[in-house]
Known about the structure:
Belongs to the glycosyl hydrolase 27 family. This is Alpha-galactosidase. Pfam families: Melibiase_2 (PF16499), Melibiase_C (PF17801). By secondary structure, this protein is α/β, with parallel strands linked by helices. Helices cover 26% and strands 20% of the residues. It has an eight-stranded parallel β-sheet. Strands 15-16-17-22-19-20 form a six-stranded antiparallel β-sheet, covered by helices on one side. Helix 4 packs across helix 5 (207-220).
Amino acid sequence: MYIPRAAALVAATATSVPLNSLTITKTPNGFTNSARGWNSFGIQANAATDPSFVFNQTSVEQQCDVLVSAGLVELGYSYCSLDSGWSVGGNGDENGRIIADSSLFNMTDLASHLHNEGLQLGVYVVPGGFLADVNKTILGTDITIGSVCSGDNGLARCNWNYGEDGVQQWHDSVVALFAEWGVDFIKLDFITPGSPDNGVSLPANESQAVVNYHNAIEKSGRQMRLDISWKLARDPSDFDIWESNADSFRTDQDINNSGADSDSFTAWATVQRAIDNYRQYIVLHTSQDETLSIYPDMDNLYVGNSAPEDGVTDDERFTIMNHWLGAGSNLILGNDLTQLDDTGKAILTNAAAHSVADFAAQHPMRPRNPGTGEGDAQQLQAWIGGPDDSGKLVVILANYGPDEGQGGFNTTLSGVQNVTATWQDLGISGSFAIQEVWKGQDLGTSNEQLSASLDEGQSLLAILTPTN
Length: 468
């Protein structure tokens, strides 16, 4: 791994753009950190990355058992999350509840297997009741699904008439069934406004689905995370609903490549987009002191397999991890866990790096442009998280390389670049001891700036600790 050289100079400066307080507190379902684990969608969508993978209980258990054998569960990687395809797609049970495809999964057996290893079970759902179930009666009521659900959202489902008697009860019955199985995590997809239509006919606003699932989780008596997606809008009214009911929300579209012939998981151009979409989100919460109660989900994390299979260079793999850690994002791996390479293991088992995620769970990073302290998209970028009560900070310096079309910064600087963030840029003052995170390298003490020479796709992750 490349360790950038950091330079320390002397002299204090005054701040220009204030560094307001930004923290994350306990989420609506009671969590104080973001989710870590594995999700099946990466391999499902990029079949050539693991031709032997079949989406069924045996293959899923093989993948998630690695969370234990590789020591990842000890760093909080506990969720084993099934994506689309685990359930029957066209109908529910006799009461219209979502049920597993029994030819693929026995949910109680899978949950038992995972729980016995210290892991947790996640499932994927979309809004609406099944079109095929409109004449079925919602459990515990005399209300038929078709009397409170109408239209066609393109997902073989009708659209709930939120607020009508029966709609909450249906959600309650579904989540109660999940609780019986032992589900610990629900990924609720196709929430609007924000989700691209992707060929379906979603209602303009599905925010109330988030409310209904949150209420149902509370009633179930079982703690579950609620993650909502994909690339959700950032308007205040809907964000307030999501922040009050969900534990994490997607800030971008799918980061993965896709297709039966796709033999790599992602691409650097897509990563540039994902980082910029996080930037666009978080700068909305930096103009004044603010406390959030929802975690960002920058989508699945592809850093565990070889560089060609991940679709990015080894330097870019570290840079991806630095940004997901610093944002306090969900750390949900999409890789083939049975084929982790040495670099992937080094990234995923570094305890010091994961302490940054713990820090960012309360103090997420926000951008501070070198030279101005603003929060615009830039090829040469600085980020800062904190300070915490002790004054400790996390800082990232990055060279994203030339904009590949979606990075938002539209510059094409090539090769090694010097990236310097002064304390004025970062909005801080004082003397700090600086430590590079991945190898624990002591970068000295500075009361003016942090500087690094970074090639395209490289970044520096550092912890700054006050010296007085």
